[in-house]
Amino acid sequence: MISAIKSITLHYPDGHAPASMQNEQKQAIQDLCAEGVLDFAKDHKAPYHIDLSVQNKQLVLQATNDDGAELPQLILSLSPYRSIIKDYFLMIESYEQARQEGNTVKLEPIDMARRGLHNEAADLMIERLKDKATMDHATARRLFTLICVLHMDQARLWQG
User: Fold this and answer.
1) The whole model's pTM is what?
2) Eight-state DSSP code of residue 156
3) Could you read off the pLDDT of 32-82 as tens digits, one per residue?
4) Structurally, how many domains does the chain consist of?
5) Where are the alpha helices (DSSP H) in the chain?
6) 122-133 b/e (C-beta count within 10 Å ≥ 16 → b)
7) Are 140 and 125 within 8 A, CB to CB?
8) What is the tens place of the pLDDT at every residue in 99-119?
9) How far is CA 108 from CA 97, 100, 113, 152, in A?
């Protein structure tokens, strides 16, 4: 299968990726470029070059199609994701704490809960973008990972 995504560029608020999320970012981008399923409602000229940024608690997705034409921006409020993102980062912290303590019994349940949050976020993304773009569940899950990477510092502010 040929991926519908040729490249992904992330634009960080402070100009660089958070060190703690670099592995997740790298893997999500590799997977999306290898097997991402994405089709824009008013453009069917994949593969797409995707630019992602978070501005004012909104995901801004700018795509360019294979012909080089820029598509209209997709802007997605991240407010409905607030509790999912908060819980996701709590899961990451719990997992890291359990790993450092050598408490391997806790690792699998924490990882399963984290996967559940990914699934919930993916379902929400698919639903909210259904009139603008279609994607499969795996693509939505990986995009959620990139959303978390992009606004890691902002998500910590939401943890209040």
Assistant:
1) 0.90
2) H
3) 999 999 999 988 899 999 999 988 889 999 999 989 999 999 999 999 998
4) 1
5) 22-35, 82-101, 104-129, 137-150, 152-158
6) bebbbeebeeeb
7) yes
8) 999 999 999 999 999 999 999
9) 13, 14, 9, 23
Q: How many CB atoms lie within 10 A of CB 45?
A: 15
- Residue 157 pLDDT > 50, yes or no? no
State the Cα–Cα distance between residues 152 and 61, nearest whole angstrom.
17
Distance, CA of 124 to CA of 76 (rounded, Å): 11
Q: What's the rounded Cα separation, in Å, for the pair 135 and 129?
A: 9
Expressed as residue numbers, the domain containing 146 is 5-158
The answer for residues whose C-beta is within 8 angstroms of residue 11's C-beta and 6 or more apart is 51, 52, 53, 150
Strands 48-55 and 5-11, bridge-based pairing: parallel
Give 61-78 as a DSSP string: EEEE-TTSPBPPPEEEES
